[in-house]
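Worked example

This section walks through a single chain of length 447. The input is the sequence exactly as stored; nothing has been trimmed or padded.
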Amino acid sequence: MTPPHPVTQDQWLDQVTRRRTIARRLWYGYVRYPRRWAKQFIRFLLTTPGKMTTMVVLLSVIITSAGWSMSTMAAERRASFDTLINNTEPVNYVAQSLYANLSAADTAASSSFVLVGDASSQSRSDYARSYQRAGKAIAQAATGFNTGDPELALLENLSQKLPVYTGLVETAWANNQQGNPVGVAYMSEASTLMREDLLPTASQLNVLTGQNVDKQQKALTEPLWVPLTGLVVALIALLVGQIWLAGITNRRLNRGMLCASVLMVVATLWGGTANAITWRTGSLGYERAAAPLNALTDARVMAQQARTQEMLALVWRQSLEDSTNTFEAAAHSVEKTLAGFSGPTADAARIALGRWVDAHNHIIAALDAGDYERAQRLALQTNEESSYPKLDSTLATLIDATRGTMRSYINQGIAASTFVSTMVLMLSLLSVFCLWLGIRPRLQEYL
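Given that input, the structure is written out below as tokens.
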């Protein structure tokens, strides 16, 4: 008889146990064990090391979220600034140039019809230069819009009507050279087309593009309240965390958390200062440049149209009484606009305006007296006639200078927003690194 094997400690391993059912495996795998692990994790969180770890994790999430938010929105703002200065503002300037050059072409065409000799040749050259610039402006502006934009429809209308206008002007000149009275009718029709169709369309285009600039400028001057608030919340959370950690460890301040706080203060000040500069430059840009620029453009066009009516009155040999209101409105608009400017250019414009008003009054008196020859001589006199071109050129100079001022304010906003995105995110990540570096010695005390 074979003696029984002695019982060993590992004999239970030789026993075949019943395999767990699928339901039991699911229970242990997905419910019981995870619940046990969760309880162990909660018990760990209730310990001092667990509380420290939880605090650092929460602070890391808050700081990273705040830094990422500021970085993302600052990058978007910088991209919007680039769009404003490289696309929206240049398109608006082209629209203003188109508006002014169309009006200038009409003025030069009417003047050439009245003047003789070298003065007429100069007016024709001015006319050709103005309508060529207008055609170029139409082509340039079209590249700044997408299919379906209302501005593009306005440009299409201008591109279709401008050749019609130039055709009428050329026909008027040809008939005038041959001594045909019908040339006067063609010139009047051309001027009517310009004043009632082309200029209102160009004005609408100028208004729409100006509104686009104003809208973007105002949007870019709004402070980034959400990410700034996030950075402030992160600072407050760091302060609360340091106070709590000092209480449970009986130490004054944690070097890592102190370093993280300093970094977040720098990030907050950087972002806040950039927002303040952007807001300030945007407000000044609109107050000192954008609004005056629109006023200058409108005043210049009104002066050009008053000059056109002055020349057409000489063409028709009629009184200027009917156009007195238009001239006075133009003169008042120019005077009011110039009141907001100082310097030699503005002073020269005011002097030219005064001389033009005097010349206009003399022409009115001559036409009212039926002395057409004297009215024409007054228009041809160098001092009197040159008063309007001087006014127009000084207004053009002021427009260019004001546009330069507006772009300088935009560039200041761009400079203020440079590196904000990168630096705030970098400082936030360094702050998180300092947090974990600072809490590490405290956690090691419990090992």
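What to look for: Residues 67-444 form one domain.
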